[in-house]
Each structure stands twice: as structure tokens, then as C-alpha cells.
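Posting for a labmate who doesn't have an account.
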Amino acid sequence: MDAQAGRRAAGTAARGLAVAAVALAAGIPLLVITVVSLALIPAAGVGLVLAPVALLSVRALADQQRTWAADWTGVEIARPYRPEPAGRSPWRRAAWVLGDPATWRDVLWLLVNIPVGFVLGLVPGACLVYGLEGIAVAPWLARISGYGWGPFWPLADYGISGTAATLVLAALLVLAGLPLAPALLRAHARFSRSLLAPTRDALERRVAHLATTREEAVDASAAELRRIERDLHDGAQARLVALSMNIGLAEELMRRDPETAARLLAEARQASGTALTELRDLVRGIHPPVLAERGLDGGVRALALSLPIPVDVSVELPGRPDAPVESAGYFAVAEALANVVKHSGAARAWVELDHDGRRLRAIVGDDGTGGAAVTPGGGLAGVERRLAAFDGTMAVTSPPGGPTIVTLELPCALSSPRTSPSSGTG
């Protein structure tokens, strides 16, 4: 085994020790806190506040294990949790956490992981540490006491040099620990996947959800194509046909009626400008150039500047999402802002964009009259369908009298880090 492979295996053993330490240092306290908080649920509802906090902490530990499993061993563990509901009510939050079957699988994993994670993580590291200790300590211990090291010094009673036997056995421990480390770490990752990954029922529900959102996305795409065809036929195409006819007529009139020909050419020039404007508007409706050039930050700021009311824009995005997600987020924000202008009677609005490491979140709010709701065939229903194709969610809070707050979330990763986030007023 070369030096590079040895360092890699030693690093894997160190990761195993981290798994063992977390299994005890974090697992035992979290398990105790979870059991106590669940036991307090009947006690005047105190547990309904404490239990979600404890169970979400268990979920965070499980997510950390998912990250380690993917980064360290290549074992991917999907997240099976139900989406977080809209609103911040503690009762709704408790029902969401306690009613999710994946929560109880997390608790079972936490319980079983205490012994399993400790043993699988500790064994390879212990072999390396104990073996290296023997190699380093045995000669000095033999020189001082005349014996070897650890459990092997009695070999000297059989005429075998305790130091030599200790060095050989310690080296064997080191050599055994090097391949054991990655193997046991993968075994722990697979054990975690057996409890933390989605169940068959969850996968079936997921497939059904994807089938539904796919149908809606296909229908939306077909409707968008029909809209583009209609706009082209009724707008730019009709103007271009009229333009061609005017130019042809002007050619015929050029010699015998120059004034009429000049007037027709002027109309043709005006029609060409109008057609070009309509084509540009159509392209912007498909994928705005500002979105491609400046990203979601610049696109939303351009939207804010185009509205007749002041819009505060705050953006904290360390990078850019993939183009389809970016486009979906842009048009969702655009529709929400359009509803503000059309229906809210607001004097001011605001948009907040951020990313928590897993999800892009956009909050669109206004100080209008409130009462907004998702109705079939409405603009917000279209936003919901657009986001569902990306596993996104939308929550609308709009009590009578306002304010109205629309929260949009899209699971995604970011790329192309920017130098710094920005915020400002549009």
C-alpha cells in the first residue's frame, strides 16, 4: 500500500471515529431529550412545543449522516420528509412533525445508531491507534521493563521476544485497520440508508406525485406553445404580411404616384418597428434576456422597476440556480407582483430572495387589502402548478385588511458563487 492510499485510509478511519463520537455524544442526549419531550405531550401540551424541537434536531442529525454518507462513501440517502406546511402555528408545526412517518424512522435510527455507529466507527480507528501505539511504545517499554507491550508481553515467557512479537502484531493491527476503515464506513452508510431512506409506500406516493406534476407541466407547456402561436399569428405575423403588401404596392406606385408610395413606405417602416417590438415582448415572455444576462437578482430588480408602485428588493443568493429553476422562480415572482398591482390596492410591496442550502425561497408581500386566495384557473394556481413541476411549494397568507405574503420555495442547488450578496430598493 503506497503512502497516498495509506493517508486516504487513515483519513477514513478518522471519519469513522467522528461517526462513533457523534453516535454517543449527540445520539444519547438527543434520545433522552426526545423521550422526555414526547412524555410531556399529555402534560398541558408542553410536549407539543418541545417535541417538534427535539425531533427536528434528530432530523438535522439524520441529515448530517446523509451528507457524510454521500461525501465519504458515495451512498446516497434521499430525504423522505413531508413538505413543511404554511404558517407558523405551533400546533400545525407539531402535527407536521409528529404525523410524518419518517420522523419515527429517524428516532429508530437514532436509537439503533448509538451501538451500531459506535462499534462500526470505532473498530477501524481503534485498530490504527492501538497498532501505532504498539509500534511506537513497544521498544521503549521493553527497554525499561524487559517486557513487550499491551496484551502481548506474556509471549516473552515462551522464549519469544516480547518486543518483536508486539511489533509484528501491532503492524498487523495497522494493516487490518486500513482496509477495515472504508469497508465499515460503507457498512454504516448502508445501515443508515435502510432506516433513513424513503419507504416503498413513500416512493409510490412520490411516483404518483411526479406523474401528476409531469402531466400538469406538459399541459402548461402545450398551453404556452398555443399562446406563442396565437401571439405570432395575431400579432407579428399579421403585421409582417401587411408590411410585405405595403412594400409591394409601393413598388407599383413608385413611378406613377410617388407621394402615395412614400406614405406606404412610411407605414411599412412603422409596422416593422411595431412587429419588432411585439417579437421582443414575445421573447421576453419566453425567457427574458435580463434573466439570462443578470440572473434572478437582476431579473427581479428589473421587474420591480417596471411596476407602478415602489417595490423593496432584498436578495441574498451566493450563486445561481439552474436555468429552468431560475426561470420558474422568476415567472412565479412576476405573477405574484402582477397580482399585487391588479388586485391588492397596495401602496408598497417587497420581495425577498434567499437560499438556505437546500431551497430557493422567494417572499412577495404587500400592504394591500388582503383576501388573496388560490382559485382554480387563477394566476396563483398557475404559479402553484409551475412550482410543482420542480417539487416547489407556495403558501399564501392574506387575512382581510392585509398584509398579503406569498412564500415560494424551490428545492435546488446553487452554482457560480458571486462575490457578495446585495440588497436594495427597486
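Reply:
Got it, the C-alpha cells are right above this. The chain has three domains: 3-196, 205-286, 295-425.
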